[in-house]
Amino acid sequence: MADIYEQLESRILLLDGGFGTMVQQYGFTEEDYRGERFREWPALLKGCNDLLALTRPEAVREIHVKYLQAGADIIETDSFNANAVSLADYGLEAYAYEMSRAAAAVARSAADEFTARNPQKPRFVAGSMGPTNRTASMSADVANPAAREVTFAQLVEAYTDQARGLLDGGADILLVETIFDTLNAKAALYAIDALAEKLGRTIRVMASGTLADASGRTLSGQTVEAFCTSLSHAQLLSLGLNCAYGAKQLLPYLERLAETAPFRISAHPNAGLPNVMGGYDETPEMFAEDVGEYMRRGLVNIVGGCCGTTPAHIFELSKIACNYAPRPVPAPRRVTTLSGLEPLRIAPETNFVNVGERTNVAGSAKFARLIREGNYEEALSVARAQVDAGAQIVDVCMDDGMIDGVEAMRTFLNLMASEPEIARVPTMIDSSKWEVLAAGLEVTQGKAVVNSISLKEGEAEFLRRAREIHRYGAAAVVMLFDEQGQADTCERKIEVASRAYRLLTDAGFPAEDIIFDPNILAVATGIPEHDGYAKAFIDATRWIKENLPYAKVSGGVSNLSFAFRGNNAVREAMHSAFLYHAIRAGMDMGIVNPQMVKIYSEIEPELLQRVEDVILCRRADAAERLTEYAQQVRTTAETQPQAPDAWRAGTLAERIGHAMLKGVADYIEQDALEGYEALGTPMAVIDTLLMPAMERVGTLFGEGKMFLPQVVKTARVMKRAVAALTPYIEQGGAQTPHNAGKVLIATVKGDVHDIGKNIVAVVMACNGYEIKDLGVMVESQRIVEEAVAWGADCICLSGLITPSLDEMAHVCEELERRALRLPVIIGGATTSNLHTAVKIAPVYSGLVIHSPNASRNSQILAQLLGPDGQLYADKVRADQQALRSDYLRAERTRNLIPIVEVRKTRKGAAPHLPVEPLHPGRMVFPDFDVADAEPYIDWSFFFAAWGLKGRYPEILDHPEKGAEARKVFADAEALLARIRDERLLTLQAAVGIFPARAEGDDIWITDQKGRERRLAMLRNQTRGEENRSLADCIAPQGDWIGCFAVTAGIGLRELCEKFRAEGDDYGAIMAKLLADRLTEAFAEAVHTFVRRQMWGYETGEPLTPQQTVRGQYRGRRMAFGYPASPDHSLKREVFDLLSVEMTTGMKLTENYMIDPGEALCGLMFADADYFSVGTIDTKQLLDYARRRGMEVEEIKKLIPNNI
């Protein structure tokens, strides 16, 4: 059976279209559905399409055949609802396996028939597995949001039965499709994975989600990115989207999926949106035009149709699919990513991730009481408050002797799922009991974190639990315990962590899903053995981050200060100082109470010193000194209580700065208005008092001295201050003439920050501009569509976080695709003139301008829309071009490793054992038989030269290009026969194998008279690449190298002149193209001869010509002028070594071109790989010119693309 992976590598595959759409055309009656077998069935069966595989298999097969005739590569089985959960509506649960098997068998029969007709186009069967008609993560009972109609275990059982039937019937792939609830899909994937393990085989799986409405989320509330993250644990053949939307409406979400997914991408949209009668009006041509856009943008690997599509729609896709390359599967990003309704990436730019700890019955007496009382509604408010305060993950623990942990975990997580504001963040399922962890995993649709597993019960149980966690699609906290107990010293922590990491990664558990907890233990307890606990955690964290790639580190911070309970001033300082040092060492996340963390830079210096003495174990009496200081703090607090509002005595700037830093909003409106009175304008307050305070907070956050919950509080203070000033901003613009222009403003997708955007909107409105504010998290496509529909004169894009910069570029790309030229103004904390010039402006033919603050937007537009607008636009573009040029010059230099360093490390050098040739020396082929070169012709390039893009031989059967391709091919074969039989062209070559050695970046070749000739090579210097040189492929102590020069162009000039004299330009072009192809084929034939006969290192069964053309052999043939050896002048040395001009009809021109032009010249290596030299620096250029014995300017002309 053909390998679908091989097919997917080379082309976009076609899925079939709507099965139900085709069934409707048959007009089946109730009796048709029943057939003889179910004539007396008590329930109505019409509409149960899956039953047709048993009662009307001939009709099912006929539908499959129509799609196969249309060009479908993959057909879906008639089994969408063939599972016990869905079939319960008909009382047919017991027939689920039989229906599934029968559906697969019918499809298998049809697919095999078409594969047999054309083995070059194999057909595949995908076993369709729908979402069922029940949802596992939502309640159907509005009065009981914790209730569920179906459990995870019931879904697993139903999907297992269905998958078994489909596989037994002959399905190649299982397609879990139309996923509206990710938890249902996770149950299907769990079932398939468990079945694969039981059967001892690999099961290929496609998964495809469906979006519910214009929000672009699944029905269960997940964004496209969160949906992808939730299924990322499965080794999917592809991940895609289908149904709900037409192809045009699906495009922006497919783009988002393609940006995120580590898998191949599939798409099978509906034939547009349904009309008022529930039908679909999009013609096959319209459908193909919209789906073609997916291919043009390189988004997809598999395309097909869903509701409303027919074989005609698939036929239209078959006409265009071969014109586009499939989307390359991206390299694994290895970034820890979790999800609730939205994704959470844990990467360096995320800073520290806060895990809320108040929904833990062991850590919060209030929460424990609420759970014991069954007061889940109020318990939910605890979770909500944590998320509102900035918790990025919510830890849920129900471990209490008086609580049924399984039931409480299940109920509370179900309730959390019903609250979008809580459910948007991932969950940490926390328990020491496996059954509680499993209960939590079975009700969580996102990618959660299990807290925790350890080696305490031995390796077998540790790995068993890890496998289950991965099968559920979760990450895992690994506590550093083993059979000996808790790892308390740095050495023990390293020992246990390295062992656990090795066990997990060897078992296939992703390293990025491993979160180590090296155990934060109490310090300064009075027990000397405890003094090093904090330092041991920090040191172990540093070691883990340096030695265990992609793993993360977490911990429960409050344990640290257990010895100082009741003394919050000391505890807060301890937590902040510890986090500061642990984060610098690499700690990624932690369970932290935001109320018990102080801003690091605000800790009183003496307290900070004593705290850090304890944490870093800097002196033997550190614990004693901190205890003494803590007592002083307690005594001072009792005898000299400080007024809580003492900070109000400072200056206005100090008060506003304090309020912003501490997140105190009680007086901010009052202070903002005082600033307005003092400074005269509301914008002066924003620019000179509020923004500097915000910038300081941003700096502290970036340095790890503040944490997200504190930043969230600061943002709330800022919003209240701006709200107090807004009426005065508006009042200032009351007399401004209106109709200055229409401005659409939005915060881009992925960004929820709106303070800056709101200020800009108010200021511009006050300057006479009509404003349309789309809010936050706005898709690029919507921004463009709204701007066009509204008739905007300008688009203003806002964003605070780094990923927003890419989204701004996407908006400009969308404008460019639609040939629009609306000016775009870019603003926000992470934006800059340089980034706008380098990354955004080049993707858009319109004007893109960076604005540094809210006041500048109006000034920019006044100039742009004024009488001298074109002069202003030209100046902006010129300034941006200057910025780009300066940046690119610096970047080229910065990205190059100095040539001295590169040569010293020689990272590109690989171990190489020289192979002595059987027949060294030269050999000439004066008249090589065309028939021996012909099998090596790569016809795909031949057709491409005629503008007929597509793979040979598939292009001969192409529905649109096939007829023309067959005609051209017939003409080519006829002329090739004449060339062969009448000897119209002569194939000549000179080859040789010579002794060689490498010295630095030079290859020294000894000719047949014993003289050494230098072939100077270039070396790649690009940072992050392998920095190879072809000299690396030759051993310094002595080796061998091949040289070649080949042509199939002797006689071509005369042949073409003859055709043209006869008025046959077509024949002349055909002869030229065949000579090109014959030259390449001849080079492959000669290289094969050298490998097997002259050099002799290739033995065994000879490769087929097809394998040879694909390069499936040892060694490489490197032609001059190609990326690894771009200097054409090296042909001179090879021509002299081989005496080419004396023994063949080839000549070398003064510009180092070969006459005839249909020729190749280069080197052969027994061990080498293709690479590109890329850009070189000035030092290598000068050195290369010296080694070549040429002037620098001459070298620059020879290799301009490398300078």
Name the descriptors:
1203 residues, cobalamin binding, Methionine synthase, TIM Barrel, 34 strands, cobalt, eight-stranded parallel sheet, EC 2.1.1.13, single chain, zinc, alpha/beta
Protein described:
By secondary structure, this protein is an alpha/beta fold. The protein has 6 domains: 4-323, Homocysteine-binding-like domain (TIM Barrel, Alpha-Beta Barrel); 346-446, Dihydropteroate synthase-like (TIM Barrel, Alpha-Beta Barrel); 470-636, Dihydropteroate synthase-like (TIM Barrel, Alpha-Beta Barrel), CATH 3.20.20.20; 648-732, Methionine synthase domain (Methyltransferase, Methionine Synthase (B12-binding Domains), Chain A, domain 1, Orthogonal Bundle); 742-891, Cobalamin-binding domain (Rossmann fold); 904-1199, Vitamin B12-dependent methionine synthase, activation domain (Cobalamin-dependent Methionine Synthase, domain 1, Roll), CATH 3.10.196.10. Helices cover 46% and strands 14% of the residues. The chain contains 45 helices and 34 strands. An 8-stranded parallel beta sheet has the order 1-8-7-6-5-4-3-2. It has an 8-stranded parallel beta sheet with strand order 19-18-15-14-13-12-11-20. A hairpin with a 5-residue loop joins strand 32 (1147-1148) and strand 33. The longest helix has 31 residues, at 1065-1095. The radius of gyration is 35 Å and the shape is globular. The two termini are 49 Å apart. The mean pLDDT is 91. Belongs to the vitamin-B12 dependent methionine synthase family. Its EC number is 2.1.1.13. It catalyses: (6S)-5-methyl-5,6,7,8-tetrahydrofolate + L-homocysteine = (6S)-5,6,7,8-tetrahydrofolate + L-methionine. S-adenosyl-L-methionine binds at residues 938, 1117, 1170-1171. InterPro entries: Cbl-bd_cap, Cobalamin-bd, Cobalamin-bd_sf, Dihydropteroate_synth-like_sf, HCY_dom, HCY_dom_sf, Met_Synthase/Corrinoid, MetH.
